[in-house]
Amino acid sequence: MHELGKLEDLPQGYRDDLTATNLVPLWPSMRAVLPPRIPTRHTQVLNWSYESVRPLLLQAGELTPMEKAERRVLVLANPGHGLENMQATPSIYLGLQLILPGETAPNHRHTPNAVRVIVEGEGAFTTVDGEPCRMERGDLILTPAGKWHEHHHEGTGPIVWLDVLDLPLVYRLESSWAMEGQLQQKRSERDKSFADYSAAGVVPNMGFQRGDSNSPMLRYPWAKTRTCLLEMASEYPEGLLSISYVNPENGTPLFPSIGFGALMLRPGETITLPKRTTPVVFHVVEGAGQMNVVGHASAGAEPLDFINKDTLCAPGYTDITLTNRSATEPAFLISADESPLHQYLGIF
Ligand SMILES: [Fe+2]
Fold this sequence. Notes:
Layout: H1 12-20, H2 30-33, E1 46-48, H3 50-63, H4 66-69, E2 73-75, E3 93-99, E4 104-110, E5 114-120, E6 124-128, E7 131-134, E8 140-143, E9 149-153, E10 159-165, H5 167-172, E11 178-180, E12 219-220, H6 222-235, E13 241-244, E14 259-265, E15 270-272, E16 280-286, E17 288-294, E18 304-307, E19 311-314, E20 319-324, E21 331-337, H7 339-345
Protein name: Cupin domain-containing protein
Keywords: Dioxygenase, Oxidoreductase
Pfam families: Cupin_2 (PF07883)
């Protein structure tokens, strides 16, 4: 590609006239927005080690009472996007939220889609549109755009979960807003993962209206995902062991914006993931290992170590290799990426 004219090549008077008329010449910036073959990626390779974050999160619990926080969250901000922009990737917001025993987060709803991945603690539940969703380690709890949700914690220790939202995307679409509501009335005693969607390939007929684009299942229990990955491991002695979380009625991703998945690393295994356009976030549910990223300036020469409860991030258009450090135990990671959006846009 040949070199294009620079802004400084233009007479100052002409540049001033353009500015006064709200005009910008494209050619000086064209290579920046349309670089040759590889996109500019602000997302940096990163590990938010839970060991570092946890004491700061508990400190937030001492420094800021719930009335002053409403949602007591430390945002996992990727410095490549500017910390103040609170982005892990272009479309994904990540936050670690702490609720102490007896605390509640008031009923509210918002336009961004949200999933929470339970990191530690027991005895909490999120009520989504009247459906109480128990929160256990590794579970995914969904609150699709516009659904009412409130959090309660009746356990004894702190509870921490990882919020995953498409907030940066919805914010840039100038469509991000929230509202508060009255305490919800429970409509059932248990979430739908217990009965309606307790088995893969079997869906309920009673009073269900098919065709809604939102997943009718709001809680994806980790225990079931883990069992599924272990069953796959006994069937397939080699190759990538991964699953996608989908709407059980129609197989589509949980949200149009963010795709969720989980993968298992066999003991001692090192595996390179298929190269993809979308950046990716990993949350380590079990085990310890290393992530090596090739193809981005932010990746250091050495792989990043990770352990249970860490959250990692890598940009797209890179080669990501994951290693399980244990020779005897499997490792499990939950992933979130922007693949549904990339597919919709035809750039995947
Ligand atoms: Fe919320």
